Amino acid sequence: MDGKLILMIRLDCLLADLDRISGAVTDAIRKREHMREVMDALQEAENAVSELASIAAPIGQELARPGKGRLGDLGNRPLTASITNLDGHIQAVEDRVARIRETIEPLSDRMVELEKQTVLEEDLRAATGNLRFEAEKLRDRLDSDGADLPELWRGYAEFVKTEAEPVYDNYVEFVAGLAMRDSAVEDSVCMVTDHLLTRMLGPHQALSLPSRTPAFSMRAVIKLGFPDWNIWGVPLAAREAGASVVKHAADKARMLNELLARPPTPYAARLAEDALAAFMLGPAYARAMFTFRLHPSAPSASALPPDTLRARMILTMLRLAGPADGQDAFAEEVDQLEDFWTDLLRQLGVPPEPVLDPDFCRRLHTALHRDRLRGFSAKNWADVQTCADHLLLGDTLPPLTPVDRVVILLNAGWVARHRDPLRTNVIAGRLMHHLRHDGTGRSPDARSGGRPLTTRTPRGT
Hints:
This is Putative coiled-coil protein SlyX. By secondary structure, this protein is mainly alpha-helical. It has 2 domains: about 5-170, no CATH class; about 185-445, no CATH class. It contains 15 helices and 2 strands. The termini are far apart.
């Protein structure tokens, strides 16, 4: 078997694998469309039964009146008996439809919303389509007369390593993350993260999935890196959302992207992502990063800023946030974070971090404000403190502005944890209870039928 034939076999296998990935994506879409059709049909059945019940109700009321009211003139006992039994039949149908919903709805709740998945499938389809095009070009060159076999072998090896393998890795992580999410193993954490992403990026813009690492790789996937698959790790998704804005949403953050070089260097992009996450999420992002992610003494890649500099960027953005709102409501919280980080550096024998250009930080903060991204407001800090008290006591939460609810509660959870670290698990359970969706599959903000939970006017857009 010669080298040309072997390479042809490998290319054919690669093309077949791409077809399998594309087919699996199509199958995933089809299954979710079928589930939606079933739920729509069930809703139509419920509506029909409800309409029938509303028609039968006046008849039943007439039959219940002394002398049968207007129906007393029917003089047809079989017909009267049938009408009398109608309510019982309607109730039986309602009960059966309700039992069907009880069976189907848990499956539907675990299926990722189709609107969110559309962008993901488009990403994978586009990637596999591009790979197929390049693989077919290689095969055409292999079929041509005078093909340079050594060069084609080198081209194939480079193509597989740099183009095909990353798509396959993304596909495997995508499918595995969906399976974990659909099985409800990490559904509650993903659901809360989705609420946060909706607040940061808008509805149906990104989907959170469990992953081995949080490295950003797909346009609409926010990875929850292991071992951060818990309520305390949810704020870490804000950095991935920041990466999505910096990399893909130039229109959403025009001023920010004008400030950065296009494309931004990895160094500048990472700092901008941390700045945006701290700006939008507030102290909870710093608490989560300092507790779970940043490693002061770890060597950094030459193209990326050290973790000490990232911490300084986060703290600087929090320092700028309060005065920008005309008040300094959480200055004490930032002081505590500063002391925490400084003490950690001292314990690990790490020298003070490099100095950030203060003018760059101010211009970065100004750009985020001018882009009208919904930042964490110092005006919400009173709600954070109140909710932290309620989380510690187990009380019912006060009304909150729906759009800020998830950010307020994540900050409140970290404040409560800092106050009483021995009750971390209790606080986490209460926090999750208030954040996750209820039995209807709606978010906590939707339970009022779309009405705001407070009369306060939300700030910003």
